[in-house]
Design brief:
Layout lengths: L1 H10 L6 E2 L6 E2 L2 H12 L8 E3 L6 E3 H11 L6 E2 L6 E2 L2 H11 L4
Antiparallel strand pairs: 1-2, 3-4, 5-6
């Protein structure tokens, strides 16, 4: 419990006490500062490339895209809204959208 409270106190919203020595960025946790420095300044961590889903045009990291396609497009079907073009992966989601947004029953 004490460890949790210590972590909570460090990550609690408020003062960002950890300042980057190479730019004006500040962070509430030292681990976030380290990731920032290694990603932005030293290049030790590679910035994740973003890819766009060719089915629904959402943009995610490559790993996120793999999960997205397995969960959202496993059967390859999409349900576009004819009024606004919004895309849904399940027919009930499209119906709920139409009823709420376009007042179509």
């Amino acid at each position: 419990m004490a460890t949790h409270m210590k972590y909570h106190a460090q990550s609690n919203p408020g003062e960002a006490r950890y300042a980057c020595s190479m730019c004006p960025k500040r962070y509430r946790s030292q681990s976030n500062l380290i990731v920032h420095v290694k990603t932005i300044h030293t290049g030790e961590y590679k910035k994740r490339d973003k890819v766009t889903c060719e089915i629904c045009n959402i943009t995610l990291t490559e790993g996120g895209m793999y999960v997205h396609k397995k969960t959202k497009h496993a059967d390859g079907r999409i349900f576009p809204c004819k009024q606004c073009g919004a895309i849904f992966h399940k027919y009930p989601e499209l119906i709920a959208h139409r009823n709420k947004t376009h007042k179509v029953c």
